[in-house]
Write a structure and sequence with these properties.
4-stranded antiparallel β-sheet; elongated; single chain; alpha+beta
Length: 474
Amino acid sequence: MTRLLIAFVLALSACALSACARLPTDLPPRPTLRNPDTATTLALLAVESGKTGAASAPEYGWTSFGLSELNRLISRALKDRPDLAAAQARITLADQAEHLARLQTQASYSSDATLAREHLSQNGLFPPPIGGSTLTQTDLSLSVGYKLDGWDKNRSLVRAAADDARAARAETAAVRLTLAAAVADAYFSWGHVRASLATNRELQARHRDENRLLKARFDLGLDAAPPRIESEIILALDEDKIRALEYLDRSGRYRLSALIGSDPDHADDLPAPRLDGHLADLPVTLPLDWLGQRPDVAALRDRVEAASDLAQAARADFYPNIDLRMAVGLETLDLSRLLQAGSLSSSIGPAVHLPLFNVSTLTVRLKQREAEYAAAVAAYNRAVLDAAREVADAYALLGNLAQRAQAQARATEEARYVLALSRRRHELGLASPLDALVAEAALLQRQDNEADIHATRLRASVSLFKALGAPIKE
C-alpha cells in the first residue's frame, strides 16, 4: 500500500511538472541596493578640521557627554511613551505573524464531531423500511494535512515574516534614537538660552553703568547728547533681547518637560541644564557599515528582504502544489455501535493544485510583489543617501565650529587683555571709568559668542550621534 502511494505521488508530481504555469516575460529588471562612498569626503573634512586621529563607534553615544543629569532625562523619556508603546505592539504583532507563518510549514490537524437527527423521506432514494425512518447520524473524525514545499513558498513566507519582525524591532530602535536625540538637543538648546540670558543680564548692567556715566558727563557739559541717546537706545535693545530670552527660557523648559513625558505644571522641577559636556573627537574615516547599522536604515533593509521573499513566494504559485491528506474517524447510524470496529472509516491520498486557469491572477500578484520590492529598494537607497549626507553635514559643521571656537577663544583673550589694560589705565588716572565699562561689555559679548559656539557644537554632536545611529541602552 505504501509503495503504491509513493508511486502515485511520483506520477502526480511528473504530471504536475508538465502543468506549470508560465512565468511572465515582461517583468522589469530588479533594482540594486546602493552603497554610497563616504571615505574620501570625510577624510578631506578631517584634514580641513585638523583631525589626525580616529575614533571608533563605541565612543559615540549620549553618555560620552559625561552629563549624568542628561542621561537620566533620556532614560526617563524612554519609559512609558505612547509612541514607544505603539512600536512595542508592532513588534508583538510581527512576532505572532512569524509564529503563524512557521506553523503553516508544519502538519495541520483538525477534528470534527457531529451528531444529527435526520428523518428520511419515504419517496426518496431509500425505500421503506429505511425510507420514512428517523436516524441518528454520528461522526467523529481526525484529519491531518501536510503541504509539500517543493518550490520554497512556505519557507519564503517564513523568511518574510522574520524580516518583518526584525524590521519592527529596528523601527522601535529608531524611535528610541529619535527621542533620545530630541531630548539631548532640547537640553543643550535650553542650556544655551539660559547661559545667554545670564550673560545679557550682566551686559545690561554694564550698559546701565555706561548710561549713568554718560548722563553725568552730559549734565556737566562734558559730552554732547548723542552718546547719551545712543546709550539709552542700547538699553532699550537690551531689555527687548532679555524679554525674548526669558520667553525662550520658559519655552525650552516646557519642550524638555514634554519630551520626558511630564506636564507643564512640573516643568519647574527640571534641573538647570549644563553646557560643560565633553566633545568627542571626530573620526578620520567612517566605515560604511556604521550607516548600515543605523536603525531606520536597517529596518528598510529588512523590508527589502521581506519584499524579496514575498516575491519569491508569488513565483512559487506558478508551480503545482501537492498536499498530503489523511483522515480517520468513526461513523454510524446507531449511537450504541459508535465504538465498534465496524464504525471505523479512513482515507489517505494526495491532492494536487494545478495553476492552469488562474494565470492572469498569479501574474498580477507577482507583478505587484515585484513593484513592492522595487519601492522598498528605492526607499532604502534614499535613506542610505540621506544618512550619508546627514553624517557628512554634521561632520563638516563640527569641523567648522572647532575652527570658529579657536578663533573666538583668541578674540576672548584679546578682549580680556584690553579690559585688564583699561582698568590699569584707570587706576593710573590715564583713562576714564567709561573705557573699562566698554571693555567689560566687549568681553561679555565675546564670552556670549563663545558660549553660543560651544552650545552649537554640542547640538551638532547630537546630530552626528543620531546620523550614526548611536546605540541606546535598554
